Amino acid sequence: MASEGVHELKKDLSRKTRDMHRALVSLREELEAIDWYRQRAEACRDSQLKEILLHNMREEMEHAAMLIEWLRNKDGDFDSHLRTFMFSDASLTETRETAAGHSRTVTYRTATIGSLKE
């Protein structure tokens, strides 16, 4: 998991690596917020507050999805792994076996949240 600070001297890191770090830290924060809102909503006894918390959780999911799409567009390895595992009708273990060179064909559904390519 990414951390707030970088592990190497910033001067030794490329702009791409620093931007990737920003995106990964932001993604972690969005995922944490999703978890927090879900727990709060589940524990909440006030129905109106619960709906607000669930609304906020869904907005954090949107933010996380946008970050994942940015990562996919900016990093070929991320793109390859996401294309392998996302939107597949096969089980994750079957998909992994296919990616590792086994002979099962995987059919993908297509879905986009919009392109973030520059």
Question: Can you lay out the helices and strands and say which pair or pack?
Answer:
Elements: H1 15-43, H2 47-74, H3 76-85, H4 92-99
Helix pairs in contact: 1-2, 2-3
Oligomer: single chain
Rounded to an integer, what's the Rg over CA atoms? 18 Å
Task: Determine the structural class based on helices, strands and strand pairing.
Answer: mainly alpha
Number of E-state strands:
0
Count of discrete domains: 1
Task: Walk me through this protein's architecture.
This protein is mostly helical. It contains four helices and no strands. Helix 1 packs antiparallel against helix 2. It is flat and about 50 Å long. About 4% of the residues have low confidence.
Concise summary:
This protein has 118 residues and is mainly alpha-helical. It has helices at 15-43, 47-74, 76-85, 92-99.
Can you give keywords for this protein?
single chain; 118 residues; mainly alpha; flat
